């Protein structure tokens, strides 16, 4: 079996504050193979986005990667000098943000911005660059791409701006795209179109993706594998269909039960009791224990990492497993 494209091991990202150290990412490990889509899911504050930023060194000071490795094709990119990281960002690893305004400059045309992105990593003439940009916009479904290159971001709808951001991320045919909830702010029909197109792009180009989302329904239609995060940790991971059909961790079960599609008409939606814990004051042992219906005194101890075939989970009392 070939080595994974991305191998993340024991990643820890910390933010010192006056009240203590926030461990936003706490010992996260996972792999991503070429052409694979990994769904990274969890509630707000679970550490999903910080994990994505950490992979390409976009953690602002005073935050820092305190431990662990991020190996791209076997090379650890944690701690590389900024010029070496810049050579990787955009070319080998690209990121699509939730809000395209984080990517697009309002005072430059889309064509100018795309050409700047191309020239950041390669020498290319204006004519060849324009042809590459037109092809990239066409690839993500922008109609009349040659004319739209001369438009400004405000002349696009929200869905079209996000498509432009995706096109910029794909310009250099990267090995990996990190998509940080890129469809959250879009209406359902546009979401469905972009999800279908992104999945097709991964299949056709061999580009791997990490799809970050709080929406299990979205991830279920996108990802080959899923990693469920809680309080900075991955508490369960495995093939998407396996995890969603038969979850082992009570938190994963709670997320699934909270989906509107699960509830019968007229019934109240299920919810996970309590709130996510402060990362400054995590409970001892399993951080989900205060909200878990299966918690026992032993949950004050660190749960063991269980391996079951091609899935893993952190739980003293996993669902569906005989004692």
Automatic annotation (TrEMBL):
Gene Ontology CC, one term: plasma membrane
Occurrences of domain ABC transporter (ranges): 6-256
Membrane topology: Peripheral membrane protein
Alphabetized UniProt keyword annotations: ATP-binding, Cell membrane, Membrane, Nucleotide-binding, Transport
A molecular function (GO) term: ATP binding
Pfam families registered for this protein in UniProt: ABC_tran (PF00005), oligo_HPY (PF08352)
GO biological process: peptide transport; transmembrane transport
Cell compartments where the protein resides: Cell inner membrane
PROSITE patterns membership: ABC_TRANSPORTER_1, ABC_TRANSPORTER_2
Chief subcellular location: membrane
InterPro entries, per the entry: AAA+_ATPase, ABC_Ni/Peptide_Import, ABC_transporter-like_ATP-bd, ABC_transporter-like_CS, Oligopep_ABC_C, P-loop_NTPase
Annotated family: Belongs to the ABC transporter superfamily.
PANTHER family: DIPEPTIDE TRANSPORT ATP-BINDING PROTEIN DPPD, OLIGOPEPTIDE TRANSPORT ATP-BINDING PROTEIN APPD
Name used for this protein in its record: ABC transporter ATP-binding protein
Species of provenance: Alsobacter metallidurans
């Amino acid at each position: 079996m070939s080595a994974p494209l991305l191998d993340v091991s024991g990643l820890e990202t910390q933010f010192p504050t006056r009240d203590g150290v926030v461990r936003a990412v706490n010992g996260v490990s996972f792999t991503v193979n070429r052409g694979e889509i990994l769904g990274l899911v969890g509630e707000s504050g679970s550490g999903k986005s910080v994990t994505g930023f950490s992979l390409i060194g976009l953690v602002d000071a005073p935050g820092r990667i305190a431990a662990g490795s991020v190996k791209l094709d076997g090379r650890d990119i944690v701690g590389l000098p900024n010029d070496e990281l810049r050579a990787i960002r955009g070319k080998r690893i690209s990121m699509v943000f939730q809000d395209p305004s984080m990517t697009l400059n309002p005072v430059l045309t889309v064509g100018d911005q795309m050409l700047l992105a191309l020239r950041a990593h390669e020498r290319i003439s204006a004519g060849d660059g324009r042809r590459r940009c037109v092809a990239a916009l066409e690839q993500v479904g922008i109609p009349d791409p040659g004319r739209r290159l001369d438009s400004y971001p405000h002349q696009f709808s929200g869905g079209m701006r996000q498509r432009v951001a995706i096109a910029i991320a794909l310009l250099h045919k990267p090995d990996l795209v990190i998509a940080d909830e890129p469809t959250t702010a879009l209406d359902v029909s546009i979401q469905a179109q972009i999800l279908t197109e992104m999945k097709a792009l991964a299949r056709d180009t061999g580009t791997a993706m990490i799809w970050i989302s709080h929406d299990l329904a979205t991830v279920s239609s996108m990802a080959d594998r899923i990693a469920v995060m809680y309080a900075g940790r991955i508490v369960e991971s495995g093939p998407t269909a396996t995890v969603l059909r038969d979850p082992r961790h009570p938190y994963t079960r709670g997320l699934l039960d909270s989906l509107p599609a699960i509830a019968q008409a007229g019934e109240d939606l299920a919810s996970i009791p309590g709130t996510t814990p402060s990362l400054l004051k995590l409970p001892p042992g399993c951080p989900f224990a205060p909200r878990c219906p299966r918690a026992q005194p032993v949950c004050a101890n660190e749960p063991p990492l269980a391996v079951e075939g091609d899935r893993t989970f952190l739980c003293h009392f996993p669902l569906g497993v005989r004692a």
